[in-house]
Amino acid sequence: MGVKFGATVRKRYGKVYRTLKQKRRCPSCTSLKFKRVAMGIWRCNKCEYKVAAGAYDVNLGKLQG
């Protein structure tokens, strides 16, 4: 994202991107292989546990504020 977008938009994008790419623990087996498969679908590659949650984070309340 270059100069075309404002600083506020770039900061907000950076926050969402960092939240999306951070490592997460699987609620079922506690491994660190819990990743987003598609928008709102999260899956553990180790135990095949699937859950539908937020688009960018499993906990919906994290990005507000």
From TrEMBL:
Keyword Flavoprotein part of the UniProt annotation: no
Taxonomy, superkingdom: Archaea
Q: Which Pfam families match?
A: Ribosomal_L37ae
GO biological process terms, semicolon-separated: translation
**InterPro entries, sorted:** Ribosomal_eL37/eL43, Ribosomal_eL43, Ribosomal_protein_eL43, Ribosomal_zn-bd
The entry assigns this protein to a family as follows:
Belongs to the eukaryotic ribosomal protein eL43 family.
**Name of this chain's protein:** 50S ribosomal protein L37Ae
* Organism of this sequence: Candidatus Nitrosocosmicus oleophilus
